[in-house]
C-alpha cells in the first residue's frame, strides 16, 4: 500500500473507535472546541501533501510551539543554550519541582513547562521585542505571513495559569530567569496561543525532516546537527509523562499539545500532523496517539 | 570517506584525548582490568565487520546483557510483559526508589536495575532452569557455542551487591517479584557476568538492526515490531541518567555497561561496539561516549 | 542558682564564643542590621522580667509572627482550620514542594512558608481588612498600642520574594488558596515585617505559657486546649529543618525567625526571647540556639 | 477527679466507640490476636499503679522496643551515637528511602525502621552477644527476670520482612551498616518480638519519667540529659507519620507498636500503657490513640 491508502485506512479505523479521551479543562477557552474534530495531514520533502478529515480546521497548537521557540533560541545561542536547560527526560510529573530544586533551577529539558519558560526568558533577553520577532520567525518558517496569536486563548491562560506563575517564580528564585517573571510569562502564554491547521502544521515542521533547511527554497533555518538534536529531544521528551510510550509505540520524534494536536517527524522522509481534541490521562490526544501507533506499525515509516 | 576510514580517524583522535574517566569500583573484580584498553568493532547486516584497537579482548558486558534477557522474556511473554515493567525513562537516580513506591513496584523500564531484576524474576518463573536456558539463548543469538558466565565476576558482585539486594526485596515487598529474592538475584548476578569482545558483541546485536532476524540464517529471534520496540527502549532508557544526552549527541539506540562497553544499533544498517573501561560520572564509558559522538557527528550513521 | 544568675552566666559565656553564623541575605533590607547585637529577655507569669545585653533594641521578628497569625486564625475558625493545613513536621526542605503536590495543596504545618501563606489566605477571607485587624490583634496581645509594620522590610521582601510567589501560586493551582495570590502575599509580607525587642517579644508570648490568657488582665486570647496545641506545634515544627534538633537539645516549644530572633515558651512558667542576627545553615540564630541549649541544660527549665 | 476516676471514665467511653481500626497484616502471626482486647495501666514514680480491662494480658510490643534498644546504645556510645542516626522527624513514608539517599545512609531518627536497624548494628558491633545482652538489659530495666523473645513472632517477621531486608541492605550500600545485614536483621526481628502486658510496659518505662533512674532502687540506667533527650525524640518521632498529630492531640512523649500497644511518659509524674490491637491507617492503635487524647484533654497530665 502507498502512504495515502494507509493514512485513509488507519484514519477510518481510528474514527470508529470509541473516544475515551477528555477535553482539556485547565484553559477554559480550549473547552469551546468541537470534540468530534479529527484531521490528519502528511507532507513529504517535495512539499506534496495528503490530508483527510478536518485537516483544514485551525486549532490551538499550544505546546507544539515550544519546538519553534526552541529552534529560534538554539539558532541564536548555539550550544551555549544547554547551560540554561538540560536534555534529559523528566521522569514523571511527581518529580518536576523536586528535580528543579536538586538541579539548581536547570529544567530537565526544553519541552517541560519549566524548560519552555526558560527558553522564553532567553528570547526576551536576546530580542528587542520577543513577541513580534518570534511571530515573524514562525511566519517565515511556516510560509504563513498572516499568522497571529490568539488573544482569546492567551488571555484565558493568563487568567488561570497559576501553575506556570509558580514555576517561573520558583526558577527565578533559583537564579535561572534573567527577566521579570511577569514579562516572561506574558510571552510564554502568547507563544502557546498560536493556531494552525494540520496541513499548515505538518508543512511548518518539514525543516526538521530536511536537515534544518526550508523545503520551499532551501534556505537554512538551523544547522543539520541542530536539526538532528531537536529531533532527538522530541523523541525522548516530546510527550510529557508518556514520552517513552510514544517512542516505544510510534517510533518517531514528535510533539503534542493540550489542544489535541500532535506533529511527528520522519527524518529524510516526511512530517505528519494529527488533531483530535479529547486527551488521554497523560494529556496527549487520545485518537492522535492511536492513529500514529497504527500508522507506523502498519508501515515502515519509523526510525527503528 | 567510507566507514572504515571514519572509524580509524575517530578512533585515533579519541585515543589521544586525556581520559577523565574512573574505573568502576563497586564490583572489586572489575577493578583488575587494564584501564588503557580501547577497542571498536562495527558489523553490517551481511556480517562483514571492521575492528580496531583492543577489539578482540574480552570484557565483562554487565548491563548490556539486560537487552538479551529482555529479548528472551519478551519472546516468551509477548506484550503482557509490560504489566510487570514500564517503558518510560527513569528521570534520575534521585527518584528511582521513590518512583518504585509511587508506582507500586512497577519499575520505570527494563534497563534500570529494578526493571532488569523483574525481568530475571519473569525468566525464573517461566524457565525450568533460567541460568542454563538463558545461556543457551545467548549462545544461539551470538553464534558462540562456548560462551560461559564468569564465576569470578558473579561472585564478586554477589559479595558486594547490597544495593541490588535492597532493590529486589523492596520490589518483593511491593508485590512485583514472584520468586524467592535470593534465587532471582543469583540469576541476575550471573546474567551480568557474561564476557564478550567488541567483535562478538557487535555481531550478537545485529538481530536488532535486522528486524529481529539472525543475519547468519534469517531465523527469527523476535518479531519485527518487538525488535523496533527494543530499539526504542534502548534509545530512551539505555544510558542511566545520561539517556537523553546519548540520544541527543549520538542519535542511536544503544546500551552501556559498567565494564566500559557500549553497543549501538543503526536499524537496517549496522551495529557497533566500543570498549574502554574508565567511566564518566554517569557510569558510562568516557572514551566510548566520545567515540560514538564523534563517529555519528561526522557521518550520516544516525537515525535522526 | 536562680534564673537571673543562670541567664547572666550563659549569656556571658555565649557572648564569648566565635559566631559561625551568617547574615540572612535573601531579604536585602535585613542585611543592614548590626551583626554583633545579642539580647535576651525572660518574662514570668506575673509579668516580671529579666533582660540582658541588647534586649531593648528592636528587630524584625519575621516568621515568629506566624504564631500570632495562627493564633488569630485558630481563634476565628476553631478546629476547622486543620482542614486547610496539617500538623505534621515537614521533614526537610528537599520535599516541601513534592509534599504539597502529594497532599493536594495541604501544607504540612502552619509554620512552613506554604502553611503560613494558607493561614494568611484564611485571614483575608474572614476579615474585612486583614492587614489592619491583624495589627490590632497583635497590639492587644502585646500591650503595644503603637506597634506598626515596617514598610521598608515589607517592600524589600515584596521585591525579592519569588519563592513565596511561587509557593502561593502553586497552592492556588492545587485549590487551597481562596483569594487572589497577590493580595494574600501582600498581607503575608506585611505580617512578617513586624518589629519588637526581646522584652516585648517575650511579654507578647506569655499567653501561651498561661493557658491562652493574657497575664495582664486574665482575658482570654484563645482556649486552654488551643494554647496547648500551639505549643505542641511549635515544639514539633517551629525551627525549619532543625525542629527535631531544637526539641532534642533545648526541650521547649519555640519559634525562630530569619531576623535572628527566637522565642521559647515553658508552659505554666515563663517565656524567653533571644536575638542575635547571624544564622546557622538551617536559618536559625547561631547564638540564639547556643544560648537556649546551654540555658535549659543547666537548669530544670524544660518540659522533659 | 483523681487519675483513677479519669482513667475509668475515659476507658469506659472509649470501649463503647466503634472500632474503625484494622489488624496489622504484614506479620501473619500478629493476626492471631483477639481484636477486642483493650487494656490500660498507669504507673507513678512511687511504683503505684492502676490498671483496667485487659491490662494483664501479654502482647507483642514490637516497635516500642526501639526505645529500649536506643537507651542501651545511647548508654554505650554517648553523644557519638548521633553521627550514625539523626534526631529529625521523617516527614512522611513517601520520602523515607529518598531521604536515606540524600542524607548518605543516615536515618532521620532512631524510631523509623531504618534508624532502629542502625541502632541494632551499633549493638551488634559493641556487644559480644547482642541478642542475649539486650535481653539482660531489658530484664533489668523492667524487673522481669524471666522475660524472653517470642520465637513465633520473630520467625513470622523473618519470613515476611522483605521491606526491612531492603532497608538494611540499602543502608549497607550507603556505608552506614558495619556488620553483615543478615546478622543485624536477625537481631532486629528478635528485638521487636518482646512481649509484655500493660502493667509491665508502663513499669518498664518509668525510668524515662524519673530522670533516667530506676524507681525501684534509684540505680542509674542513663543520665538525666539523656533521659530528657529520649523523651524529646519520642515526642517528635514516636508515631510514624502521625508524630505531629500525637504531640498535637495528646501532648506527651510516647511510642507505639504495630501490635497495638502505646506507652506514654509524663516527665516527673507517671507513665501509661494502652493496648488495643486494631490499627488506624497510620499504623497506630485506633482505640489507644482515642483513649490517650481524651485522657490528656480532660486532665492536666500533659507537658504543654
From TrEMBL, chains A, B, C, D:
<feature type="binding site">
    <location>
        <position position="240"/>
    </location>
    <ligand>
        <name>substrate</name>
    </ligand>
</feature>
<feature type="binding site">
    <location>
        <position position="258"/>
    </location>
    <ligand>
        <name>substrate</name>
    </ligand>
</feature>
<dbReference type="InterPro" id="IPR012338">
    <property type="entry name" value="Beta-lactam/transpept-like"/>
</dbReference>
<comment type="subunit">
    <text>Homotetramer.</text>
</comment>
<comment type="similarity">
    <text>Belongs to the glutaminase family.</text>
</comment>
<feature type="binding site">
    <location>
        <position position="157"/>
    </location>
    <ligand>
        <name>substrate</name>
    </ligand>
</feature>
<feature type="binding site">
    <location>
        <position position="63"/>
    </location>
    <ligand>
        <name>substrate</name>
    </ligand>
</feature>
<keyword id="KW-0007">Acetylation</keyword>
<protein>
    <recommendedName>
        <fullName>Glutaminase</fullName>
        <ecNumber>3.5.1.2</ecNumber>
    </recommendedName>
</protein>
<dbReference type="GO" id="GO:0004359">
    <property type="term" value="F:glutaminase activity"/>
</dbReference>
<feature type="binding site">
    <location>
        <position position="113"/>
    </location>
    <ligand>
        <name>substrate</name>
    </ligand>
</feature>
<feature type="binding site">
    <location>
        <position position="188"/>
    </location>
    <ligand>
        <name>substrate</name>
    </ligand>
</feature>
<keyword id="KW-0378">Hydrolase</keyword>
<dbReference type="Pfam" id="PF04960">
    <property type="entry name" value="Glutaminase"/>
</dbReference>
<dbReference type="InterPro" id="IPR015868">
    <property type="entry name" value="Glutaminase"/>
</dbReference>
<feature type="binding site">
    <location>
        <position position="164"/>
    </location>
    <ligand>
        <name>substrate</name>
    </ligand>
</feature>
Amino acid at each position: 500500500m502507498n502512504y495515502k491508502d494507509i493514512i485513509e485506512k488507519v484514519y477510518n479505523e481510528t474514527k470508529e473507535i470509541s473516544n475515551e479521551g477528555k477535553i482539556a479543562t485547565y484553559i477554559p477557552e480550549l473547552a469551546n472546541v468541537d470534540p468530534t474534530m479529527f484531521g490528519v495531514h502528511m507532507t513529504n520533502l517535495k512539499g506534496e501533501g495528503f490530508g483527510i478529515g478536518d485537516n483544514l480546521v485551525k486549532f490551538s497548537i499550544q505546546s507544539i510551539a515550544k519546538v519553534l521557540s526552541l529552534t529560534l533560541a538554539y539558532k541564536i545561542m548555539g550550544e551555549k543554550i544547554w547551560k540554561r536547560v538540560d536534555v534529559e527526560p523528566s521522569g514523571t510529573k511527581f518529580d518536576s519541582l523536586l528535580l528543579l530544586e536538586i538541579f539548581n533551577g536547570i529544567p530537565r529539558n526544553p519541552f517541560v513547562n519549566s524548560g519552555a519558560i526558560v527558553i522564553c526568558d532567553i528570547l526576551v533577553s536576546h530580542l528587542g521585542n520577543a513577541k513580534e520577532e518570534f511571530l515573524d520567525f514562525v511566519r517565515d518558517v511556516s510560509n504563513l505571513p498572516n499568522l497571529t496569536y490568539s488573544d482569546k486563548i492567551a488571555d484565558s491562560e493568563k487568567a488561570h495559569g497559576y501553575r506556570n506563575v509558580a514555576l517561573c517564580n520558583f526558577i527565578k528564585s533559583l537564579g535561572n530567569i534573567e527577566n521579570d517573571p511577569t514579562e516572561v510569562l506574558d510571552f510564554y502564554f502568547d507563544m502557546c496561543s498560536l493556531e494552525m491547521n494540520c496541513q499548515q502544521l505538518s508543512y511548518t515542521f518539514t525543516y526538521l525532516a530536511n536537515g534544518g533547511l526550508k523545503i520551499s527554497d532551501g534556505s537554512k533555518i538551523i544547522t543539520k546537527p541542530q536539526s538532528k538534536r531537536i529531533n532527538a529531544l522530541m523523541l525522548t521528551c516530546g510527550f510529557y509523562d508518556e514520552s517513552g510510550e510514544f517512542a516505544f509505540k510510534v517510533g518517531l520524534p514528535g510533539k503534542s499539545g493540550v489542544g489535541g494536536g500532535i506533529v511527528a517527524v520522519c527524518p529524510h522522509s516526511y512530517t505528519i500532523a494529527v488533531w483530535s481534541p479529547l486527551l488521554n490521562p497523560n494529556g496527549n490526544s487520545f485518537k492522535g496517539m492511536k492513529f500514529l501507533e497504527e500508522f507506523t506499525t502498519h508501515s515502515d515509516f519509523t526510525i527503528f
